[in-house]
Amino acid sequence: MDHDQYRSHLNDEGEKNTIWRFSAPPNYDAVNKLFEEGRTKVWPPGSLEEKVQNLVKTWEMEIFHKKSFDDNKSIDPKKYTVSLNGRQAVNLEEKRKLGGGYNFLLQTSLPEKLRVYNPAEETADSSHIAFTTAFPRGFAVEILQVYSGPPVIVYKFRHWGYMEGPFKGHAPTGEMVELFGIGIFELDEQEKIIKIEFFFDRGELLGGLLRGPSLDSSTEAAVSTCPILRNTG
Questions:
Q1: How far apart are alpha carbons 221 and 219 in whole angstroms?
Q2: Helix/strand/coil for 59
Q3: Handedness of CA 2, 124, 162, 84 (dihedral sign)
Q4: How far apart are CA 65 and CA 30, in angstroms?
Q5: Distances, alpha carbon 158 to alpha carbons 132, 149, 182, in Å
Q6: Alpha-helical runs (H) found in the chain
Q7: Whether 209 contacts 172, CB under 8 Å
Q8: Residues 99/199, Cβ–Cβ less than 8 Å
Q9: 215, 196, 230, 228: which is closest to 86 by C-alpha?
């Protein structure tokens, strides 16, 4: 597999013993193309913004696709915590108990009957399939601004993708879905991430995925079982 110019610890020599969640390293060709065609900022090589952007992409790849905590090289697994919208921070094991994957990033205090996407009922695998089905070309991320550099990095980000597959009973619209937010990464002396805080409105993401008309459940199930989609993200 070719080297990924935006992500470290993916196809490097040091990954030959890595345990991948879906049996093989993810392929980012489609989402990299989406990123390059849709980004609003092109940061100079070697700039702080480019370094932060690549760190975020590397962190995201490792957290979503590496099964063993010890294979995550962008973080210190023993010190790492993450929090969302001021909620209680959790460590890796606690995050896994919440379902891992997208589940932690979509935690909500809404009553269960109002949850179109209910993280309490999803697993890391089911959430991954739900979102990679809705976004078959991936969900790209770019850094819009970096407010401070290491050891505490504060940045504004934009996530986007095109809803070209069904989501939770809703037909694809083909429209762009965007999410904006703030991320705070704290690094240690070895430049490993030890603390993350995210602030964003999950409704901006889910709202964009619910615009399509209701689907017959068998139609959505047929699309969701496509094995190719399991290797994207």
A1: 5
A2: helix
A3: negative
A4: 16
A5: 18, 18, 9
A6: 29-38, 48-65, 92-97, 101-105, 124-134, 202-209, 217-224
A7: no
A8: no
A9: 196
Mean model confidence pLDDT for the chain: 90
Provide the terminal-to-terminal Cα distance of the chain, rounded to the nearest Å.
16
Q: Which of 74, 135, 73, 79 is nearest to 102 (CA)?
A: 135
What are the tens digits of pLDDT across the range 59-71?
999 998 999 999 9
Helix, strand, coil tally for the chain in percent (to 5): 35, 20, 40
Tens digits of residue pLDDT in 43-59: 999 999 999 999 999 99
The count of residues in the chain is: 233
Whether 160 has a pLDDT exceeding 90, the answer reads yes
Long-range contacts of 109-112 (CB under 8 A, 24+ apart): none
Read off the DSSP letter of residue 3: P
The model carries a pTM of 0.90
Does residue 107 carry a pLDDT above 70?
Answer: yes
State the residue for tokens 């980000």: 157
- Write down the pLDDT at residue 221: 52
- The structure tokens 């390293």 sit at 25
Q: What are phi and psi of 153, to 5 degrees?
A: -95, 125
pLDDT tens sequence across 182-195 = 999 999 999 999 99
From the CB of residue 181, how many other CB atoms can be counted at a distance below 10 Å? 19
Q: How far apart are CA 72 and CA 61, in angstroms?
A: 9
For helices 217-224 and 124-134, give the axis angle rounded to 10 degrees: 100
